[in-house]
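Narrative of activities, Objective 1.

The group set out to show that a structural description can be obtained from nothing but a protein's sequence at a throughput compatible with the screening campaign. Below is one input-output pair from the validation batch, recorded exactly as produced.
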Amino acid sequence: MAKKMKDYQIFKCPFCGSEYFDDTARKGKSIGNPSIKCPYCKQVAYRKNVYEPALLDENRHFDIRFSSLYSNFRTGMICLYAVFLFFILITKDFALAMSFIVAAAVIFALYIIIRVVHKKNYLESPEYEVEITRSLTRLSDVNYAIRVIKNQGIDETSVYYYQLHQNGNGES
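Output recorded for this entry:
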């Protein structure tokens, strides 16, 4: 069985300037623990492209988690549309053009339905609950929470924001 290669990023420590491989975050935006410990100077830095899940509202969380999946789907659809449009321009078949427009509308509607169902299923999944629980555990360390919120910000409809205001610790 073929083994999938990990996606590595080079991370530069803001404290000592050392560069090393980071395989805990994918390229672009991702969800998870934004802190990373430098193996050389042992200082903890915070990656700007990794978002703490409990600080995000559900929509932003889903968009970041699955951005590459849906981005690749959209790119594929645009390429397919371009091929069809090129074919229609060459053949000048307007009946084909109309059927293409109808097919494009159906595919777009299916895309929206699939995305909505996928989002609903993901947000009700145990995987999402575990991710949020781990995030809240990390955020229970006040110093960590302050550094991450300073770096990332906090959505007003996030789980952490709600929890702060339920406990009376948040500002009104």
